[in-house]
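Tokens as discussed.
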């Protein structure tokens, strides 16, 4: 297996988090798995994020991509996907603190040989023959969530991965809908080629998780706390405009549940092509780190990717 086969893109979307971003980048660059490339996608920050990260600009394993205008968290993640090409991808938030061995342990599972579909499970329901070889599509981990009031909640409930389909599995949860395992996932790149990118909503991780599971993607959960997530007063889940009870999040949750209805009716959830026709990259610290990822996207988005690669001297 070549080095290129085991390279991991760590994509960090950020917006006005100059006070936190260095810690997130240092933790990503300090991963014990050596073959990583850290890409910060600056979603139109107006603070000192760029100046704060200049200390990393000469590193070959780091890239800073500044978008010309704010695209939202899902848009920043999609931009990071479109402009990188490693065979495995993970996303760290700017207020995440990953365990040093997080990526190493996830990748070891992702490339592990001789994983088989156990005969005692109903694999044919998702189009897999029992006893056949399996390729793990994503490796998730348990994590610790630090709430604004100082409480630490261990997110360990593997069954919460299907809480939108079976809400009855969420009874007794300290954090209702503790679905955020997917935030810590390491994904095989083929997942995005098969199922598309992130939906443009603030429930983008939840919708993406459901799309993977209900379309039969194979998920492995490491039952260790390999990430600490810190909810800050300015986090989307804490802001009055986007917290769990906000009108915006309720509307997005309806979109998520509409996809569940689609699955119940058809047995599938359609791929989501990335639609970022107006994506404009204002600055790239390391053009050699840019690359095109093949995944479902609109024609206009493909042209936007072409423009970005051409404008910053990267090979298409």
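Sequence:
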């Amino acid at each position: 297996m070549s080095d290129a086969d085991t390279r991991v893109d760590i994509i960090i979307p950020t917006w006005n988090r100059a006070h936190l971003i260095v810690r997130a980048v240092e933790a990503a660059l300090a991963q014990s798995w050596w073959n990583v490339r850290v890409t910060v996608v600056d979603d139109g920050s107006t603070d000192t994020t760029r100046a704060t990260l200049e200390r990393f600009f000469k590193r070959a394993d780091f890239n800073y991509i500044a978008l010309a205008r704010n695209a939202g968290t899902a848009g920043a993640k999609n931009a990071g996907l479109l402009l990188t090409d490693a065979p495995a991808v993970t996303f760290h938030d700017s207020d995440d603190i990953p365990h040093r061995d997080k990526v190493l342990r996830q990748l070891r599972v992702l490339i592990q040989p001789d994983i088989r579909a156990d005969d005692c499970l109903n694999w044919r329901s998702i189009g897999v023959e029992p006893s056949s070889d399996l390729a793990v599509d994503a490796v998730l981990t348990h994590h610790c969530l630090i709430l604004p009031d100082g409480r630490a909640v261990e997110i360990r409930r593997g069954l919460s991965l299907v809480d939108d389909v079976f809400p009855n599995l969420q009874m007794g949860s300290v954090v209702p809908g503790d679905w955020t395992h997917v935030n810590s996932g390491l994904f095989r790149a083929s997942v995005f080629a098969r199922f598309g990118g992130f939906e443009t909503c603030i429930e983008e991780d939840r919708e993406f998780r459901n799309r993977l599971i209900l379309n039969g993607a194979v998920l492995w959960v490491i039952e260790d706390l390999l990430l600490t997530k810190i909810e800050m007063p300015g986090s989307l889940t804490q802001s009055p405009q986007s917290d769990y009870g906000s009108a915006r999040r309720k509307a997005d949750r309806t979109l998520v549940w509409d996809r569940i209805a689609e699955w119940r009716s058809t047995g599938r959830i359609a791929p989501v092509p990335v639609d970022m026709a107006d994506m404009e990259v204002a600055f790239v610290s390391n053009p050699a780190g840019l690359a095109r990822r093949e995944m479902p996207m609109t024609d206009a988005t493909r042209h936007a990717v072409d423009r970005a690669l051409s404008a910053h001297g990267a090979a298409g």
